[in-house]
Design brief:
The structure is a homodimer of 429-residue chains. Chain A has 13 helices and 18 strands. The first copy, chain A, is α/β, with parallel strands linked by helices and 429 residues long. Chain A has 2 domains: 174 residues, 3-Layer(aba) Sandwich (Carbamate kinase), CATH 3.40.1160.10; 145 residues, VC0802-like (2-Layer Sandwich).
Chain lengths: 429, 429
């Protein structure tokens, strides 16, 4: 039933202002609550939703630069602060915001009550700095909603079985919002941010970028992982698992955002939905590995054990019965990667290592690709026609990623945006 | 046994550095933890006590001006913020300090763990902004001490039965420290502050002021209530009730402070232990009250219901069968006091009100007074000899307070400090 609401035509997808939908979870990030003025604005947005006849649960992050200030205080005191104490420290940021927002709501005549993560019944794993939510006891929140209160919940935090304050790591407040929406069986989860929605590509670099009316969870996952940055992949996965419709929208502008749901009902004729990109990519090539069955698993197990994230992997066999292995990493991990490989040279038995910095990744994403086998070929042809050399390729069912030289990145994005007719293909709202 | 330790001679009262006494609760106020540097200094002080072989529980306040910053943020959002949300907001201040101190301790090689009020098992009344501690469950702290950890606890805060975060009001961190000392059966509670101890009078105004080696709980209560300001009366009362020896000492200087215990064992020959004073006092006189049995109780019940604190009260009967009533208040309460009285004129049936601003209170305190009936007379004589007019008088068993004109205040303090031989009567450490 939840899901049905977003099926069908555009008119049903885009909720009309004033339309009653029951229970809404709203999430406002750090920039949306960065000052007293901005908190007042958030209170107004909550009031509007309340005036529409909806019950509202609001999840907020720490104000603007609060987290940075706390982190630098910690660094003044310790070169390697304990994760437990960092969670204790950082969780105060959201606690400040919830109380201030509750006050701002009361000032606007809205009955509101704030709760920290532990008070809101958000249980997590007993892991600090990157815990996953294990359970939400909605009793307290449900009681407050029943009493007509807006419930303001601190994002990013929870409590472990032992009663320790934990935090959820990057994108934690998005995850809190989606998890609460799932636990409370909310009708919708609105993610308010500083952009007006999800775009075909980054509008700061490509002026023809268009806002998407809707994308599927899977597309959003690829876009999120590929650095689109508006929504954390963990939160998208959570929403997909529990079929929570999300809307990414602006906290300042009063226009509809981008709906994220199971099937993108609009624009289905579009094979490619967006072009994502990120720079500061490095390719590392390990030469002369023995052709044993275990050598591939050994090398990536070693890298993973040292928390080095590897993205694209390419293996090629040489004439000398050895294997050359290339993989891409973020450039910031290069020194550590080289160190780890050298430290394990005896076990891994490779010959030597080469690396190439100054690369970038450009990817096209769209669930329409599954039934369109020519998409990757069209992408390569288009890049070749524009003298852009592809250094590495990786594909999934709904994505093709290429590694190119960094200086060609924006050109590649522009070219692909045109090739796949994303430019001006649909309206901006 | 606890108490015995501080009985007897001076040598036993003043703990030698390095002497093992078991479990010590240390409390550091906002100025002592006002920066990363100062938190490092606090960690050093904790380390020293740990190196003496003691178990240590540390109670800290919010860093320096944190509370002020949070209060002004709240004021930007609400003219009258809810006390519940203010407690939610302000309690973050101590939570920041505990985590930073735990990190600073770890950096100095001291195993430490931080706890908020609710984690530390501090239960309070279900009242916001001024709750009293009702119960302390010491299980968590005791376990951590047994594991060899220094336990850092957030002062000023607790949790109500309903799971709400509460704060203890003014002097709350002092109260937390003393209450924990009582609950844990600690050997001593050290209150670290920005002065080196309790003085015979305020050393900022009277250069002959001397630090007291010890004062009794009752004397400290009078001194605290009379504006000496180093220690909150609630904390002193708590310490008295549970016979917890306190030491007020400097967080920066490494000298002994002032011991507060049942009987001040030193300086018992001194009749007067200190001279306290405060300015901005106003005398209000209500003229022509009917001489009914209830008029006195009615007037002060009315003032109390409006949260106006009345200090000294003097009643005099006139020839016309009416009563004149004078009382002293803080000058900041004058407007409200006059308003309340005018609003209730019909009930109270008085004739008119006079008020005199620009007054000050000067008091002498000392448990030796009980057995020395001439002390008040000596005080008045000494003030008269110096042309200082006494406008109001109030006495208790261990205190005589006088109200004088503000311009005479410091002269009166100086004169009394000499009269009762406090100047240079004992050494400064």
């Amino acid at each position: 039933m939840l899901f049905l609401f977003f099926k069908g035509k555009l008119e049903l997808n885009q909720r009309k202002e004033g339309e009653k939908v029951g229970l809404i979870v709203q999430k406002f990030g750090g920039t949306s609550v960065g000052s007293a003025e901005k908190i007042k604005n958030v209170a107004t947005r909550v009031l509007e939703e309340k005036n529409n006849g909806n019950d509202v649960v609001v999840v907020v992050s720490a104000m603007g630069k609060t987290t940075d200030v706390l982190v630098s205080l910690a660094k003044e005191l310790s070169s390697n602060p304990s994760k437990r104490e960092m969670d204790m420290l950082l969780s105060t940021g959201e606690q400040v915001t919830i109380s201030l927002l509750a006050m701002a709501l009361a000032e606007q005549g809205v009955k509101a009550v704030s709760y920290t993560g532990w008070q809101a019944g958000i249980s997590t794993e007993s892991i600090h700095s990157n815990a996953r939510i294990t359970k939400i006891d909605t009793k307290v929140i449900a009681n407050q909603l029943a009493a007509g209160n807006v419930v303001v919940v601190a994002g990013f935090q929870g409590i472990s079985e032992a009663g320790e304050i934990t935090t959820l790591g990057r994108g934690g407040s998005d995850t809190t919002a989606v998890a609460l929406a799932a636990a409370l069986n909310a009708d919708k989860c609105d993610i308010y941010t500083d952009v007006t929605g999800v775009f075909t590509t980054d509008p700061r670099y490509v002026k023809e970028a268009r806002k998407l009316l809707s994308v599927s969870y899977d597309e959003m996952l690829e876009l999120a992982n590929l650095g689109a940055g508006v929504l954390h992949p963990r939160a998208v996965e959570f929403a997909k698992n529990y079929q929570i419709p999300l809307e990414v929208r602006s906290s300042m502008e009063r226009e509809s955002g981008t709906i994220i749901e199971e099937e993108a009902s609009m624009e289905q004729n579009l094979v490619v939905r967006g072009v994502a990109f990120e720079d500061e990519i490095t390719r590392v090539t390990v030469l002369g590995l023995p052709q044993s069955i275990t050598s591939l698993s050994t090398i990536f197990t070693t890298l993973a054990a040292n928390r080095i994230n590897v993205d694209i992997i390419i293996q090629s066999t040489t004439a000398e019965d050895t294997t050359n292995l290339s993989f891409s990493i973020k450039t910031e991990s290069l020194d550590e990667t080289l160190q780890v490989l050298e430290d394990n040279k005896e076990t891994l038995k490779f010959n030597r290592i080469e690396s190439e910095v100054g690369l970038a990744k450009v990817s096209i994403v769209g669930s329409g690709m599954i039934s369109n086998p020519g998409v990757a070929a069209e992408m390569f042809a288009s890049l070749a026609k524009n003298q852009i050399q592809v250094k590495m390729v990786s594909t999934s069912e709904i994505k093709v990623s290429t590694v190119v030289e960094k200086e060609h990145m924006l050109n590649a994005v522009q070219v692909l945006h045109e090739t796949f007719e994303l430019t001006g293909a649909f309206a901006n709202a």
